Amino acid sequence: MTPTAAAAPEFLDVDETPIAFRRQTGAAPGVVWLGGYKSDMLGTKAETLGAWAKRQGHAFLRHDYSGHGESGGAFADGTISRWLAQSLAVFDRFTAGRQILVGSSMGAWIALRMAQELRKAGADRVAGLVLLAPAPDFTAELVEPQLTDGQKKALAENGYFEEPSEYSDEPYIYTRALIEDGRDNLVMTGPIDTHCPVHILQGLADPDVPPAHALKLASLLPADDVTLSLIPQGDHRLSRPQDLDMLVGAVEAMVERAA
Q1: pLDDT by residue (tens digit) across 200-212?
Q2: Cβ-count burial of 111 within 10 angstroms (0-12 exposed, 13-18 middle, 19+ buried)?
């Protein structure tokens, strides 16, 4: 599938931070892309979905969190609460009708929290969730249990620690604020009632988010509304041609179900 040529982004000011977004008009249900930690809206998966939405005539919306991609703000100032507020602001302003939220890695956490907040506000806007290599609660479930003494010391003394990234020349930065705020946004503490169908795509060769994490998430979702697809040799990116085909197929099925 050929990715779309990226048009220049638009910007929405959220708490004095310019948040970059791109939108394609089209039919409902629309599709909303939520990227991962340190990723941006021009990645292979987002571009593939943009091309699919254009061919199929469906609305498509994506944005960069603060400190990511083309948005303003410092990455180290980001927290789940802040990125969630930005995602809700873009969603509220630039979508109409029911939407399919597609969340990758940390974006799956944002998607689940968006579904909760929209439901709390009385808005029945989420028609389905497609979650790739989902990493909800990753700060508490995946980062905190693995902290070394040196990392704990760095958090206490400096407020952050750095880790090399396989996906970027720049290191990952984990801040004390991110970890502490993560505890206020946990979703895997009990049953998760999304009020919509959920399709999880998880690679069995994912070095960053273990398949057991996706299995735990699936166990907390209503059994009659969750599909879990395990992908042999699939890594965390899930960007091979066969992975992208599965992603598009999952989104297409969710759109047809919601239409």
Answers
A1: 999 999 999 999 9
A2: buried
